[in-house]
Amino acid sequence: MFEISSENLLLQQVANDKASAIAHIAKRLQELGYVEEGYAQAMMAREEQTCTYLGNGIAIPHGTLESRPLVKKTGVVIAQFPQGVAWSPNEKAFIVIGIAAKSEEHLTLLRKLTGLLSDEQRIQRLILARTPTDFIHYFQTSKPSITPALITTHLTTDNLLTLTAENVCHLQQQGYCNEHFLSDVMAHQSLYLGENCFLNDSAIGNLENGISIAKSETGKMLFTVAQIDEQLNSLLCALTPQILQQLQRADKNEMITILEKLYKGEPLVETGDGMLEGTFLIKNPQGLHARPATLLVKIAKQFPCEILIANPDNGTDFVNGKNLMKVLTLGTQKNQHLHIKTKGEQAAEALQALEAAINDGLGE
């Protein structure tokens, strides 16, 4: 993802023409160490190939494929031209985003801009912003990914097409997707997650990150995801059978609480018996073999509380998290999950330490 800071911004700028604007932006890209000298010419060469004006006053000049050797590292410079710069016939650019990309990292930014282009009010705020703080706020502000308006419960149907239509209707009404999203998501089969739960999404028509959920009276549940970047991936990876069961039992407010914790990377849930639990993705290329398992058990032994671990993907029972051989019997492979429960003194600290170690790769 692109991080925008004040040094990436050029506010209250004036340029006589497109070439001057691009030269100014390229100079700043070079000053910040993103590109070598000569990148401005590459950006103008791209304009000769294809105009980079997107619409609604936004342009995204960038270099050609042949100019990638001039890019030292991926980055952007955003220039604000309140009076506008003539960019294409009969079109002025007011927000010009100069992009230096070593490969395809800039696609994340382009997906973000897809949502921005449909929000004329935000664009006007960006054009009129006087301070870097205001500009960054308006640029990064987006719709909440999890909101009551996107969740429907107690539906009287279990039909997946009807549930899909319900979810997409909410997403479209709230500005998370457009009409192309509906036709594409309807054309593809939903993914079965287990526990009578399903997920679908679309490669096109996404405007903002958002998850719409339709849950029937019988407990059948469909997640429909609109996604412009990778921010929702950790939440989606955490939808293990245990989490899905919790969501099925929960009311709308409880569902939002669970999903927000997962979204924030805080999948901690206190059960009725005072036990804390969380579910974490194993990213190690060879799974939880002896070396990372040894580190996991070593960390577990540092805490006095009870620690139990299971592999929900393999359907295993919980084992003693302080016993190396027991942990190895879980047979955890890459992209599978560990469901960890802690109870007693320093239970929260233990769970947080184990989560941090797993997210860091357990020494690998």
Automatic annotation (TrEMBL):
Ranges of residues in domain HPr: 275-364
Keywords: Kinase, Phosphoprotein, Phosphotransferase system, Sugar transport, Transferase, Transport
Organism (species): Actinobacillus delphinicola
Name recorded for this polypeptide: Bifunctional PTS system fructose-specific transporter subunit IIA/HPr protein
GO terms for MF: kinase activity; protein-phosphocysteine-sugar phosphotransferase activity
GO CC annotations, alphabetized: plasma membrane
Domain called PTS EIIA type-2: residue spans: 2-142
One GO term of the biological process aspect: phosphoenolpyruvate-dependent sugar phosphotransferase system
Top-level taxon: Bacteria
Pfam family name, one: PTS_EIIA_2
